[in-house]
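Q: Entry one of two.
A:
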Amino acid sequence: MTPAQVDTFFATLQAANPQPQSELEFSSVFELLVAVLLSAQATDVSVNKATRGLFAVANTPQRMIDLGVARLQEHIKTIGLYRNKARHLIETCHILVQRHGGEVPHTRAALEALPGVGRKTANVVLNVAFGEPTMAVDTHIFRVGNRTGLAPGKTPYEVEMQLLRRVPARYMEHAHHWLILLGRYVCVARRPRCWQCQVAGCCDFSPKTPSP
């Protein structure tokens, strides 16, 4: 994909959806952090179903600590790896209270020091909550980056670095969401819906999947 095609690619996505939003439900930076932490190997739909009840009773680090691991597990037991996630989340809440005054930190190093928070989770929080030009590479973005020729790489980190180099700065605020939505609903894993794709003309994938 040439630089001109990259620009057209994102200009097209921007025109179709100028203000893309995360499909995770949250009303604070802390709730975002919790939702993203829980979303590993789980769908946004399943996370939202669990957090609606959870956030009604525990929407701050201290309230989450007061809830405790056992009761937290009851709220999130429909989500994969819920036991480990509950333990990590309670540990994270203790650190937020003890070291950060109950607030979610703004730096990558501080975020990645939280239990259960890796580079992808930190990137989501930095981008969505704090508007930083980061790129959280999940399975959808990894696939889209490689399939389209936008950002080929053998690892999520390689794809992330390619995206940071290739995506024009004016698109970086929302590029993460555009790529996730494209991968989730159009550039799907088994049979990409090329006939529905608004950016098919910029894409290196060949042959294009015909309509059913």
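Q: Entry two of two.
A:
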Amino acid sequence: MEPSKSIDSSGMDEFGYTQTLDRSIGKFASFAAGVSYISILTGVFQLFYFGFSMAGPAYAWSWPIVFVGQLMVALCFAELAGRYPVAGSVYNWAKRLASGTSSWLAGWLLMLSSIMALGSVALALQITLPQLWSGFQFVGDGTGPFDFAMNGVVLATIMITISTLINAFGVKLMTRINSIGVFVELIAAVLLILALGWHVVRGPEVFFDTAGFGEGHDLGFFGVFLIGAMASGYVMYGFDTASSLGEETKDPKRTAPKAILRAVTASFLLGGLILLFGILAAPDLTDPKVGSADGGLQHIVLSVLGGPFGKAFLVCIVVAVVVCTLAVHAAAIRMMFAMARDNNLPFSRQLSKVDPVRRTPTVAAIVIGVLAVVPLLINVMQPAIFTILSSISIVLIYLSYLLVTVPLLRKRFQRKWPIRDAEGSEAGFSMGKWGLPVNILAVLWGGAMTLNLIWPRQEIYNSVPPFEWYLQWGGVIFVAAVTVGGALLYRLKIRHQTGVLAEHAAAVAAHPSSGPAGEAAQQPAQGAEPSRSPASPDLVDEAVKVP
């Protein structure tokens, strides 16, 4: 799978765009972007209580299962990143694999999910900060029915504001903070694993005991395991961020694929060991705090390691939440920027504007920050805000991933993948003969997880009173609304204006456009100069199509 040394990894004219972003990200920073988005110390600590409360210690088996499934997806993405390391990775990959409608939907759904995920990640501060110091509980004393949720919204809004300022300032500052934070997170994860391993009080047989979980459920333990598995499914995604920052990465065709695979693998190993030793070291697994939102894995760490050491690790978790917020925000910005420069969003010219000094999409950074706070304010009186926001955002992410893996599989069956660029250069990563079986598994996994995530279970979408059908079906209704609404928006309006804006088009297209795809790509956008160059459609047999 070693790439050819002849790859031109940095020429944006290959894709029909001019280089407007700051190409300054190195190998570790690219890896750190993927790791910080997955952020095991954020996700594992934020959602451990949920998985444990649903299926007990045996829920930990969901971690390796989710890893294997997501690795299949990551391998497909690594192959695509080795050819197209462009901002808004999923959107730009789908553009080269499928129709204009489905590629636009892939970007639309992932952008919306990133905005919602930004809020849900920032909410994780509520699970950790008040346990560090009670002064962080600004709203009430934490005992009121809405104190927990309302204070979480306050902390999350402050965090998103900080993230907006950092991301708007430039990618160098963001990646520098992110890399330092990831380094701290990785060291803390290793030390935490060693510390918990030293304090193990029970054997691994606990993972083979259902401990009464699932009794009375229609599907028994399997039913509650499927629900608990979401705690792992909510964590291990976002590895495509390394490629979404490809336009700002040095030697991206080689760097991005490796960063994707290393990020998901490192997160699996470290997160899995934390889960393993956390459960084995817990003083009392029957303690109600272990399965409660204001306790969870944080409670276990504080109980096992004591005051100073336990709180030191909680500080590291706060660092992880901060850098995870930065990474999710950065990915959302790149998606908005990528779609806007193709004139594929309302107010595209403003959203695609790049600051001439900082060379970053400042307007997009601010808009994403503002939009991320909206769902928090809407749900401010909802105590189950964590699981609701997480569930809906992850469903959208898995759907957007399917809009890449499914058309990629279709290309393989049609023997149109892998393909060689016009110059004959090879990609930065290839699965070779393993591509087809891996791609099939990726599609099957994505479909199964999407179904499991969107299933209108009361435990997920309406876990606390009032119990109403429209709340329980809220996830299905919302996902259907944004998908159908997005498709109509594209078909009725946006597809008639799509085309690379002049200020982002390469001065000379890499290859002349030809055929229907080329004609579509050359359609002038409304309000844009007709002389601009389109994204090159010769990279694959089908470029972005505008039906």
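A: Comment on entry two: The two ends are 36 Å apart (CA to CA). Residues 66 and 233 are 6 Å apart (CA to CA).
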